[in-house]
């Protein structure tokens, strides 16, 4: 059996003042591997210094950089936009390319933000501190739409999730995506999907840290494998 190759988009590390590092979340890497995929890192093609926050990066990519990213996307079967404290323009561009080419993609936490930005939406700082509960296994309830891909995967309309973020989106912030999950406490959006695409899903919580979320990665890897069947 040919295993699909799934790229995890690297994020700049904030740990060193001397060297520059790109980071890959090992929990995501392992979630892909244990479900039958090969995991690789996707790295920015040019830029060395990055904007160190999770707000939108206003630095545009050159046409050569975008072409290089497109050449990378052509060589893989799926993409994960991981969470983290830093977001950069190349993540938005990768999201746009995946949507354009119908390459399966999941955006997790900050990756959720970059999926939204890729289609002209926005995120903003939360007024509710309960969203930023670092280290908590579960923080709040999420309600899932019964007509969503997420429901078909998890088989439930209600679950409890972790919440490790400051930036949130509300319904009016979302463009083009179908809103498929919300937090009932403050009505913020917790998951989005793009209809008429193979697999485009943004998830605000961190499924890689929850054992009962494995079906998401299992189904994603299965979709990425479809072209080999």
Keywords:
229 residues; alpha/beta; nine-stranded mixed β-sheet; two-stranded antiparallel ribbon; 6 helices; 27% helix; 21% strand
Helix segment tally = 6
Spans where pLDDT lies below 50 across 5 or more residues = none
- SS-based structural class? alpha/beta
Strand arrangement in the largest pleated sheet: 4-1-5-6-13-12-11-8-9
Level of helix content?
A: 25-40%
Question: How far do the termini sit from each other?
Answer: 9 Å
Assess the beta-strand content as a share of residues: 15-25%
What is the general shape?
globular
Provide an overview of this structure.
With about 230 residues, the chain is of the alpha/beta class. It contains 6 helices and 13 strands. It has helices spanning about 25-35, 65-75, 90-100, 110-120, 150-155, 215-225; strands at about 5-10, 10, 20-25, 40, 80, 105-110, 125, 140-145, 160, 165-170, 180, 190-195, 200-205. Strands 4-1-5-6-13-12-11-8-9 form a 9-stranded mixed sheet, sandwiched between helices. Strands 2-3 form a two-stranded antiparallel sheet. It is globular. The mean pLDDT is about 90.
């Amino acid at each position: 059996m040919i295993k699909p190759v799934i790229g995890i988009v690297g994020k700049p590390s904030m740990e060193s003042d001397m060297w520059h590092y790109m980071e890959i979340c090992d929990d995501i890497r392992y979630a892909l591997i244990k479900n039958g995929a090969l995991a690789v890192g996707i790295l920015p093609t040019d830029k060395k210094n990055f904007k160190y926050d999770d707000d939108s990066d206003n630095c545009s990519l050159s046409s050569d950089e975008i072409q290089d990213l497109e050449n990378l996307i052509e060589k893989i079967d799926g993409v994960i936009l991981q969470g983290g404290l830093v977001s950069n323009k190349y993540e938005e561009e990768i999201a746009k390319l995946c949507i354009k080419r119908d390459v399966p993609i999941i955006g997790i936490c900050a990756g959720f933000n970059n999926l939204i930005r890729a289609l002209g939406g926005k995120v903003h700082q939360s007024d509710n501190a309960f969203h930023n509960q670092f280290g908590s296994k579960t923080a709040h309830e999420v309600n899932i739409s019964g007509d969503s891909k997420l429901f078909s995967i998890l088989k439930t309309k209600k679950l409890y999730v972790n919440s490790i973020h400051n930036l949130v989106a509300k319904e009016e912030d979302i463009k083009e995506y179908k809103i498929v999950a919300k937090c009932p406490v403050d009505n913020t959006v917790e998951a989005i999907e793009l209809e008429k695409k193979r697999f485009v899903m943004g998830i605000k919580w961190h499924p890689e840290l929850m054992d009962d979320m494995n079906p998401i990665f299992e189904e994603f890897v299965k979709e990425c494998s479809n072209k080999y069947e």
